[in-house]
């Protein structure tokens, strides 16, 4: 007998992917939070699952939230055409934006994830949450500058050296 949730919720498919939105958990850099923490935070707010598609832990390990094809719940009226990635850190113990304190392992994983997603969705643009919602400081770093810098330094990223497999589902 199969249980109701054995195959997860029936996700609403995303029909377009125009934005890859980077977020911050706004948690202290000293805390090793991950997807379990964000899942319970979002579910307490009434979500059926964590709102992001990917979470990048302090050690650079990537965790998958919603399936890639599913509509997320992370940036309001742009949920319908975006993928959400959350970086752990960036905040103080009151969940206020503090500053860009991400580890180099996290930034490297973020680069690989974004470059992989751009290959799948070539028309998508990589932006920070503060692009779609100017009132927020999330993700607490300048995504536009980072992306330009990354594009100029692609040669330094050697995919074979990356220790984590990108979990596409
Ligand atoms: Zn955000």
Characterization of the model:
- The chain has 169 residues and is of the alpha/beta class.
- The chain has a single domain (19-158), classed as Lysozyme-like.
- The chain is built from 4 helices and 5 strands, in the order βαβββαβαα.
- A 5-stranded mixed beta sheet has the order 3-2-4-1-5.
- The longest helix is centred in the middle third of the chain and has 17 residues, at 104-120.
- Bound molecules: zinc ion (ZN).
- Zinc ion is lined by residues 23, 129, 136, 138.
Brief account:
The chain is of the alpha/beta class and about 170 residues long. The protein has four helices and five strands; from the N terminus they run βαβββαβαα. About 30% of the residues are buried.
Characteristic terms for this protein:
five-stranded mixed sheet; alpha/beta; globular; binds zinc ion; disordered N terminus; Lysozyme-like; 4 helices; 5 strands; 169 residues
